[in-house]
Amino acid sequence: MPWLEVVRPGIRTTVQDRGRPGFAAVGVGRSGAADLAAHDAANRLVGNRSGAATLEITVGGLAVRTVGPVSVAVTGARVPLTVNGSDRPDHALLHLAGGDLIEVGHAVTGMRSYLAVRGGLDVPPVMGSRSTDTLSGVGPAPLTEGDRLLVGADVGAWPAEEIIPPPPAVAGPTVVRVDLGPRDDWFTPASIRALFEHEWTVTPESNRVGVRLHGPGPLHRARRGELPSEAMVAGALQVPSGGAPILFLADHPVTGGYPVIAVVDEEDLSAAAQARPGDRLRFRARPGANPHP
Amino acid sequence: MRLRDVGRSAILAEFEDLDTVLGYFRALDADPVRGVQEIVPASRTLLVRYDPAQVTRDSVGEWITGATALPPPDPGEAEEVQLAVRYDGPDLADVAEHTGLSVDEVVRAHTGTPWIVAFAGFAPGFGYLVDGDPRLRVPRRAEPRTAVPAGAVAVAGEFSGVYPRSSPGGWQLIGTTDTVVWDPEGTPPALLRPGVRVRFTAM
After folding, report:
1. What ipTM goes with this model?
2. The pTM of the whole model exceeds 0.95
3. Boundaries of each Carboxyltransferase domain copy (chain A) (predicted)?
4. Are the beta carbons of A230 and B188 separated by less than 8 Å?
5. What distance in Å separates residue B121's CA from the closest CA in chain A?
C-alpha cells in the first residue's frame, strides 16, 4: 500500500472522519470533520466511502510527498494547490505518481480544507474513529513533520464526476439558520432580538471546540442563578456569563453549565465552521418549529 | 418532566432532581427505539439525540413522556465495580475536619455503602458518583490544584469521583486507586458508565 509522508504539517492539520458518536455518556464527544460537507465531498471525489479518514488542514501550509501512486482531492476552504510546483485545481480528482510533492498554500477564503486520498488514511482508530478530538485528547495526534500516513482500503465506486463546484464566495455575512432554545427563556427579549438583528464577528480565539463571537454587546440574562450542567450538541450557541456567544463545533465539551440560546441547523454548521476570524455571521430563525405541548 | 427541543435532532428532558433523571435514564436505556442514537444524563436533564431521518421528534417525545422511571436495581443485579483505594490523599485530614469525623470514620463512610455512577463529564471517563454516605458532603477546595494525578479518589458536594488522568481539579483528594478507569483502547473504554454501582475498599 502507498503512503503519504508529511514534509510540512502546516499550521494545524489533523486526521478526521465522521467522528465517534455514542460516547457522550462517558465524557467523549463526537468530534469528526468540522465541515462534514467538505469532508464528504473530498471522499466522494476519490471514490471513498464517507467514513474514510481525510486530513483537515487548518488555514493551510501542508506539504506531503506521495510514496507510491495515489489519487487525491482537496475540498473545503479555497487554497492554492500545487503538485511538484505546478498549479493544480482544488475540488477535483488528481491522479499522482509516487514521489510527487503536494503543497497546500494558505486559504484564500474559508478556514479548513480537506485532503482525501483514495482508500482513506489508515491511522489506528480509537473508539471506532480516526478523528483527533482536540478537547478530550482522544484519537491521533496532530500531524508533525516526518509522519507517515498509510493509505487504507476504504474504497467505494469511482465517482461519476471528477470535478465539483467549489463553495461560492460569500459577499457579506454568512447567514446561519437557527432554532431558538433550549434555554432562550434565560435571556431578555431584547437580547433575543439582538441575536437576530446584529451581525456577529468571529474572533481569533475560535477553534474546533467553538467559534467565539463578538457582537454589539453582551446578551443579557432574564434570570439569575446557575444552570446545572447539561449535555451540549454541535451547533449549540452557548452564552457564558460574559454574554458573548460561542458556537460549538465538532470538539465541543459534552456538557456545559451555561445556557444555550439557540441551535444552528446542521446543514449550516459546515458554512459556520469555515468562518475565519473577522468574518461575520448573521443568525436567522428557522420557520416551522412547533413547540412541544 | 418538561421537554425542550435542542435544534431538530435532540430533545432535552428536564426533571426535578437527579434521582428522577437516573430513574428515567434506566427506563429509556432499557427500552431503546429505532432512530435514537444517544442518551446523555446530567444532573437535572437527559439529552436524547435522534436521527430525524429515522424517527420523528413527536414519537421520540412520546417515548420519553410515556416511560416509567425505574428504581435502582437490587444489589447483585447492577453491574458492580470494586475499586481498591489507598486512603492517603492530601485532603483527608481536611475532609475529616469538615465532616466532624475522624480519618478512620471518613474511610469507613466512603467504603461503607455503594456509590452509583450518575453521569459523566469534565474529562473522558470521569464519572460523577452519587448515593454515597451523606456525611461526606464537603465543599470543593478554595484553590483548585493545577495537577491532580491519575487515579486520585476525591469527594465534593454530593459526589465522589476518580480522576481518569492527570488534570487540574478542585475536589478534595482522599485516596488513590491503581485501577485504570479510562482506557481509550479498552472495551468499553470507561469503567464508570452511568448506572454502574461502585464499591470502594480500603487497601
Report:
1. 0.93
2. no
3. 25-293
4. no
5. 5
